[in-house]
Structure formats: C-alpha cells, structure tokens
Request: fold
Amino acid sequence: MATKDNLKAGFAGESQANRKYASFSEKAAEEGFPQVAKLFRAASEAEAIHAKRHLSVLGISSTADNLVASVAGETEEFTEMYPGFIKESEAEANTEATRSFTFAMKAEQVHAGLYEKALTAVKSGKDLQAEHVYLCPVCGNVALDKAPGSCPICGVPGSKWSEISL
Reply:
C-alpha cells in the first residue's frame, strides 16, 4: 500500500512542479531572460514526464471510468472546495483570490457538465459530438463547436479563445 500512496504523492508533487515551472518560465521570458525561461520550460516538461509515468504505473482506467471520476472531481470542486475558498478570501478582503476562485469554480461547473455529456456519448459507444473545442485563456472555461462572443464567466472576447487540437 505504501508504494501506491507514494506514487499518488509523487504524481501530485510532479504535477504541481510542472505548472509552477511553466509559470516561472513565462515570468522569466517577460523579464527578458529567454535562456532561463527555456530552462524552466524544460524542467516543466520533465516534471510532466515524471507525473505521467507515475500515473501510468498507478493505472489509467477506461475513458468511461475516467469521465465518471472527472465529473465527481469537478463537482466536488464547484460545490464544496471553491465555495469555501471564496468565503474565506472574501472574509480576508482578498479580491484577486476571490476572482481567481470564482472563475475556477464556474469553469469547473462547465467542465463537469461537458464530462457528463461526453460520458453519455461514450456509454453509447460514440465519441462526443463536437467539431471543435475552445478554451478561454483567462478563466479556463471550455466551449464546444464555437467560442462564444465573450466568455460568460470572465468576459474575455471569444476571439482570444484558443482551439484545442490533439
């Protein structure tokens, strides 16, 4: 049991390091240090390799099972985790944290709904019926088929959304 717990902890730590170093890379580039930015980017990708390997060793379930778990995870985030975070940040008058938590909470609700839609399709042996998938670069909202005129969560123009490809 200890090794399984260690793999889970390793996955969590490596995943966080991946995102942290990616952000550090962007900051170094903004500050005019392109080689440091590349170093952080390389380390970020290395951490992703480690995280994916740990998850692979743990075992990745079927797409249907992964969708069920994803619906549950996203639902927990928008019904339990983020409302509590928002309440605390509001009590501390930390408006930036409140905005960040609110954007994430609302996006997680959208994600859960899209995962439910995908699960219905997969259970019937079909793929999700969407030609395109779009991502809001500010709040993480996701839209199928076309980007909205403006994000219903954060208001960013649809022209700023990126299309996701494999």
Remarks:
- The first helix runs from residue 2 to 30.
- The radius of gyration is 18 Å.
- The longest strand covers residues 133-135.
